[in-house]
Design a protein that fits this description.
Blueprint lengths: L3 H5 L23 E8 L3 E9 L2 E7 L10 E10 L7 E3 L7 E16 L3 E8 L3 E8 L6 E6 L1 H7 L10 H10 L11
Antiparallel strand pairs: 1-2, 1-6, 2-3, 3-4, 4-9, 5-6, 6-7, 7-8, 8-9
Bound molecules: manganese (II) ion.
């Protein structure tokens, strides 16, 4: 994975964004994730996951969902790990001009990291639980991002006994959101 595209788009003498360091060894610790609220020409949320020494990145126009919504996520260029701490103002006229705030961050536990499908358990302050990213066929770089509820439900089978009808099942899943908000927190 290369940071070439990240470098090409930026002039590090002008932007406050970090210049990538030469290399990062992939550690054994749990990798990090970050969601940056980016008030660019259009507000969007940049969702980034540490994979192989870089931050794999997606722009999510509506933000990372806390519940069951499926959101469009457009993959963007890999970013350096240092970017996870970046917040500030990218000056007018530069690529990505606008304010960047850290919306959430933390560690994650990778469950599946494939070229077209990613499943991770996020351990952020706001985002907790399993999330899925699936590459779509609609357009280049377009993915779907959503919270994986079924797994959580199965893990708590006591709460997931259902009559077998779709409706009942849905009701139980929704109601299972609140009883154990700390399921994935440390
Ligand atoms: Mn952005």
């Amino acid at each position: 994975m290369s940071l070439e595209r990240y470098r090409k788009k930026r002039e590090f003498s002008k932007t406050p964004e970090p210049e990538p360091k030469p290399e990062h060894a992939a550690g054994k610790y749990n990798p990090i994730f970050v969601v940056q609220e980016h008030h660019a020409r259009r507000l969007h949320y940049d969702f980034r996951l540490e994979v192989g020494g870089v931050l794999k990145s997606w722009a999510v126009p509506k933000g990372v969902p806390l519940h069951g919504e499926r959101r469009l996520a457009v993959q963007t260029e890999d970013h350096p790990l240092e970017y996870a701490k970046f917040h500030g103002k990218i000056p007018e006229g530069l690529y990505g001009a606008g304010t960047v705030k850290i919306w959430d961050s933390g560690k994650y536990v990778p469950e599946k990291i494939k070229p077209r499908e990613i499943i991770v358990e996020l351990r952020g302050k706001k985002l907790k639980g399993k999330y899925v990213l699936i590459k779509t066929k609609f357009a280049k770089n377009s993915w779907l991002l959503f919270r994986k509820k079924w797994e959580i439900c199965r893990a708590r089978s006591r709460l997931c006994k259902y009559s077998g009808t779709r409706t009942r099942r849905r009701v139980l899943i929704v109601s299972s959101e609140t009883p154990f908000p700390n399921l994935f927190s440390r």
